[in-house]
Amino acid sequence: MKKLVILGGGESGVGAAILGKKVGFDVFLSDIGSIKEEYKIILSENKIPFEEKQHTEQIILNADWIIKSPGIPKKSNLIQKIIERKILISSEIEFAAQYTTAKLIAITGSNGKTTTTSLTYHIYKNAGYNVGLAGNIGKSFAWQVAEENFDYYILEISSFQLDDIQNFKPHIAMVLNISPDHLDRYEYNYQNYIDSKFTITKNQDKNDYFIYNEDDPMTKNWFQNHNTKAERLPFSLNKRIENGAFSDNENIIFHINSNTFKMKINELALTGKHNIANSMAAGIAGKLSKIKNDFIKQSLMDFEAVEHRLEFVLKINGINFINDSKATNVNSVYYALESMNTPVIWIVGGTDKGNDYSELITFVQKKVKAIVCLGIDNEKIINTFQDIVSDVVETKSMKDAVNAAYSLGSKGDSVLLSPACASFDLFKNYEDRGNQFKEEVRKL
């Protein structure tokens, strides 16, 4: 019996362990940190041996196949030893895909992944398709492959998951946009990060589809030196597209394989230019799967926004409070500020991932009246914006940040939590950060 070792005891790791056991592997799960009690119970019930707070190399380096948590960097000592031994390393996504015949729709990009994945799932679900939602969102893909029998999976895929791809082959792949993110994981080499994103299409063939953003400069650059065997379907806010989707400022028009339909932009559930693009990408996928226009249109009209992504919280004394905690990079904040139509008190900061804030300067000059820094080290933010915005204050807790923002605001303003950074200096994750924000706003 072949030995399968899972590194990481979170949702994806436990799911991979359950699938591995089901398909006949001798499974062992190892986590350098603590495993949640609920997962330990599930592993025990499934008679899957595991360890926590350590990695026993003698067991791990004796594996035939290792499924690695996306959070473990390739440069870690253990991974380097695994590579030296030439043991196969895969992501949970790669592993699970080999044990399902369902059609896979895989979505990546620096921004908008969660929204577009959820929106695409909403379209397929509304149309009555037997569809699962997985990847970086929802229940583990491997777990669903083990226990469900879906015909389609809509998968949100991060660059970390794509780093360990060998044979993963989605029927429909999307790259929504590319901007600098997670550069600390890619030796601060932007090209390494870009190449990682485009591995989503490397195994596709002429019977598959690749949806991409025609307006994105990094995507256009990539196509100058690379190609995909899949049929290309671009979307654009700026130019007419012959096979894909585009906007004429009032409508979005889907024109796919001589089949055309359009809907008014003001009918879309999601606002902002970036969400017009996300709606186009999701709609193209629906059209490729022969979903009727009425279902696509209705789904784009009644979709509810994702939590922690430009989520309206409350209006207090005429000041809007907006939770965009999921904005963990500069480009996400660019889209958030672009969509704001009121003066902004901007709460920003956290664990810097190699951010360059200069691309935000124009929007900050036009829209931001005050900045509230929320992080352990705010030096880069202060240096960039202190000569542009007169009020810049530093805080070290969500309570202080919300109170400071409220005191700086006046009727007609918006307080926007859009951090541009990871959350790990003061919070467990971006959800914890967003939830604390909402809690403190409600206490005002």
From TrEMBL:
Q: Which residues form the signal peptide?
A: none
Q: What is its EC number?
A: 6.3.2.9
Q: Does the keyword Cell cycle apply?
A: yes
- Origin organism is Apibacter mensalis
Q: Where is the Mur ligase C-terminal domain positioned along the sequence?
A: 308-421
Q: Which family does it belong to?
A: Belongs to the MurCDEF family.
Q: What class of enzyme is it?
A: ligase
Q: Where in the cell is it found?
A: Cytoplasm
Role noted for this protein: Cell wall formation. Catalyzes the addition of glutamate to the nucleotide precursor UDP-N-acetylmuramoyl-L-alanine (UMA).
Keyword terms of this UniProt record: ATP-binding, Cell cycle, Cell division, Cell shape, Cell wall biogenesis/degradation, Cytoplasm, Ligase, Nucleotide-binding, Peptidoglycan synthesis
Gene Ontology cellular component terms for the protein in this record: cytoplasm
Q: Name one GO biological process term.
A: regulation of cell shape
Kindly state which reaction or reactions the protein catalyses: UDP-N-acetyl-alpha-D-muramoyl-L-alanine + D-glutamate + ATP = UDP-N-acetyl-alpha-D-muramoyl-L-alanyl-D-glutamate + ADP + phosphate + H(+)
**Domain Mur ligase central positions:** 107-285
Provide the residue positions that the database annotates as binding ATP: G109, S110, N111, G112, K113, T114, T115
What gene does this protein come from?
Answer: murD
Q: What protein name is recorded for this chain? A: UDP-N-acetylmuramoylalanine--D-glutamate ligase
Principal localisation: cytoplasm
Q: Does the keyword NADP apply?
A: no
Please name the taxonomic classification of the source: Bacteria, Pseudomonadati, Bacteroidota, Flavobacteriia, Flavobacteriales
Q: State the Gene Ontology terms under molecular function.
A: ATP binding; UDP-N-acetylmuramoylalanine-D-glutamate ligase activity
* SUPFAM superfamilies for the chain: MurCD N-terminal domain, MurD-like peptide ligases, catalytic domain, MurD-like peptide ligases, peptide-binding domain
